[in-house]
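Per reviewer request, we include the raw input and output of the structure prediction for the construct analysed in the revised manuscript.
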Amino acid sequence: MKHPLPALSAGLGAACLFVAMPVLSATPPDADQPVSVQNNDTKASASAYWTPERFKAAKPLPMPAVRADAIREEALRAAPTGHVQSSEGKPPSTNGKVAPEKLYTPEQAAPHKSAMSDVEPDASGTFNTPFTSTRVFPLFAGASAGYSADRAYPYITVGKLFFTIGGSPYVCSASVIQRRVVVTAGHCVHSGTAAGFHSNWVFVPAFRDGTAPLKQWNWRYAIVTGTWASGGGGVPNAADYAMIEFGDQSMYAGGPLTKLGNVTGWLGWQTLSLNNNHTSKLGYPCNLDSCQRMQNVTSTSYRTTAPNNVEYGSDARGGSSGGPWVQNFAQLATGGGTGNNTGQNRVVAVTSYGYVSEAPKVQGASIPDDRWVQIWNSICARAGNCN
């Protein structure tokens, strides 16, 4: 296996937890033991770091990548084994208008390659796995901004996750799954090695063209599966996902403190539902629109791979890491919601890895299982995060 980041490698089966706090021990904890550290509010240190220059300089975290000959394929299971667990999504509960905050001015992007449509239907790579890749549309600015798709639920739950590794700024994708809880890839939170956690996470929901329409949100607490944190950083990994708690803030001067999820709403989630499914994969891949605009790649499961992963067709690359894979991503139509798996707007995975070669046009993700539920229960046990 090969990975473009030296600090990232392959998963261990232990379902222990690792928790990121503002001050970390130089000696990593025993990988076989859960870790629990007292929380500190890091709002000041995170916000102080992120200047316009650093926002603009943030690079996409290289997506963990493997060679095609390093993958071990498994039989595609028709139905998951074990008990499926889930949580429902919810639209935003606040309707206050917020003045967009300009984070930085991006470089002038090249014109979109298709003059006919924002949709590129039924493409595929060398693995012959069809997908449809599209910029989220329609997009409006100025007086029409309130009607823009990326400013409406459920798109509004998705955003850019900025963070630092060794003092250098990076970016991944992420989504809101509860009032203060954002889910992303494990490798966007932790190196997977003794190098430990990244830092200075800031989440910008509905980011577009260097602008934060709903402010930037500062992290307070991060938790990652032991399977990722002690796995060496390689992929595929059985549990490459993590959750981050973000602090409350006022949406206008003198206003009351508000939770992130009350502003954006949140997506639901569902375990053991990634194979034999169809998903919308949302995020900010930097090979598409220079990661300045939200993208949506839709496709059906292609194959399962060891140790606990499923692959789908996709043309997204670096920057899309951690973006949600959502089943039944929609506003329910009258007469809709029928079938065998009707849970709407539920995250069934987050982007984990791609291939060294771009030719396959395939991405893989870990199947959420009891490890997902374990870190969910842990972060929801913190007061106010999920109620």
